[in-house]
């Protein structure tokens, strides 16, 4: 068989097979990518690795395989725009996993989507109580879109016509006991000012500070390496152990 024809057959089989496997694995494994992107990440990476390490075969074989996957990807994207059913096969569809505070177990089982997946992604959307969730939708790229119930949604200042001030991104001033000199200069401050502010909050040495930042209102946030906490909430199901310091 002609080697290029063999590569073509292998590439078609790999492209279709990896898409099938990805659909079988479920959305939680896609990790923020569409199925086509994930396929390309896996297969193109493997081909590129073969191009580097496959000394026994001509480099042109691997280059031809990469070209084929580029053509497959562009063709699949074009076909998905033209034919909606094909787009749904390649990219999947959104799936409702929480409706009016109720978990839809059938939809979760169909996606191989676990409670750990759900609660983890809800926490990332600042939804710590499932009862407060109106809708949670697993998107085709593996992300979770969350709509809180109106009673639980935070009240925005515009809802009650309250004017607000500008709020910028805080500047990191100390990271793991090391001063970020450039950020101090950008805020027209110096090390003496920082050390003085740290002392006001009972910090005697930079080595005590894990992280410190300055917000746009001029307030200094400090986190010490040693946290003086009597109790740390454990959200795992492990047996009680030593409290982290």
**Number of continuous helical runs:** 8
**N to C succession of SSEs:** HHHHEEHHEEEEHHEE
How many domains in all? 3
Radius of gyration: 26 Å
Low-confidence stretches: none
Helix content: 40-55%
| Bulk shape | extended
The description of the largest β-sheet is: 4 strands, antiparallel
What is the rounded distance between the termini?
65 Å
Strand content: 5-15%
Estimated structural class: alpha+beta
Q: What is the overall pLDDT average? A: 79
**Tally of extended strands?**
8
Order of the strands making up the biggest sheet: 2-1-3-4
How does this structure look, described?
With 245 residues, the chain is of the alpha+beta class. It folds into 3 domains: 3-91, no CATH class; 95-148, bsu07140 like domains (CRO Repressor); 167-245, CRO Repressor (2-Layer Sandwich). 44% of the residues lie in helices and 15% in strands. It has 8 helices and 8 strands, in the order ααααββααββββααββ. The chain has helices spanning 3-25, 35-53, 59-82, 84-91, 105-111, 115-124, 181-186, 191-200; strands at residues 95-99, 102-103, 133-138, 144-148, 171-175, 178-179, 209-214, 220-224. The protein has a 4-stranded antiparallel beta sheet with strand order 2-1-3-4. A 4-stranded antiparallel beta sheet has the order 6-5-7-8. β3 (133-138) and β4 form a beta hairpin. α1 (3-25) packs across α2, α1 crosses α3 (59-82) and α3 crosses α4 (84-91). The chain is extended, with a radius of gyration of 26 Å. It starts with a helix and ends in a 21-residue tail after the last strand.
């Amino acid at each position: 068989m002609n080697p290029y024809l063999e590569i073509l057959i292998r590439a078609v089989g790999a492209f279709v097979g990896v898409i099938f496997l990805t659909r079988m694995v479920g959305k939680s494994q896609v990790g923020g990518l569409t199925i086509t992107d994930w396929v390309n990440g896996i297969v193109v990476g493997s081909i590129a690795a073969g191009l580097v390490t496959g000394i026994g075969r001509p480099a042109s074989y691997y280059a031809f395989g990469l070209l084929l996957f580029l053509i497959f990807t562009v063709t699949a994207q074009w076909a998905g725009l033209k034919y909606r059913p094909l787009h749904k096969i390649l990219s999947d569809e959104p799936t409702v996993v929480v409706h009016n505070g109720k978990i839809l177990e059938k939809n979760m089982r169909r996606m191989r989507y676990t409670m750990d997946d759900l609660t983890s992604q809800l926490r990332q959307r600042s939804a710590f109580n499932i009862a407060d969730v109106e809708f949670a939708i697993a998107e085709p790229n593996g992300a979770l879109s969350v709509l809180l119930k109106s009673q639980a949604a935070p009240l925005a200042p515009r809802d009650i016509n309250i004017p607000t001030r500008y709020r910028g991104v805080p500047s990191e001033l100390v990271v793991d006991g090391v001063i970020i000199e450039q950020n101090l200069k950008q805020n027209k401050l110096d090390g003496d000012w920082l050390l003085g502010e740290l002392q006001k909050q009972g910090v005697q040495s930079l080595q005590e500070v894990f992280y410190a930042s300055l917000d746009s209102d001029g307030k200094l946030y400090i986190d010490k390496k040693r946290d003086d906490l009597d109790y740390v909430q454990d959200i795992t199901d492990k047996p009680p152990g030593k409290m982290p310091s």
